[in-house]
Design a protein that fits this description.
By secondary structure, the protein is an alpha+beta fold. 28% of the residues lie in helices and 31% in strands. Bound molecules: zinc ion.
Length: 67
């Protein structure tokens, strides 16, 4: 399990990785309701949703120390 650095919620990486499909260019589409992730400082950060990811993106230095 990964931890959402913003709200501390446990994130199921498998769920976050779940693909809902692929775009015609081969990029993966994920369901943000199942959690989301972003690549930051060489590691994947997992978030429970887009709201937490947005908060992290606004001030990553606030959260990355806890990861
Ligand atoms: Zn969260």
């Amino acid at each position: 399990m990964a931890k959402d650095p913003v709200c501390g919620k446990e994130i199921d990486e498998e769920q976050a990785r779940n693909q809902t499909g692929q775009t015609m260019h081969g990029a993966t589409e994920v369901d943000p309701q199942q959690g989301t992730r972003m690549f930051h400082n060489g590691v994947w950060m997992y978030f429970c949703g887009l709201e937490c990811r947005s908060k992290f993106m606004a001030t990553p230095e606030t959260y990355s120390a806890q990861a």
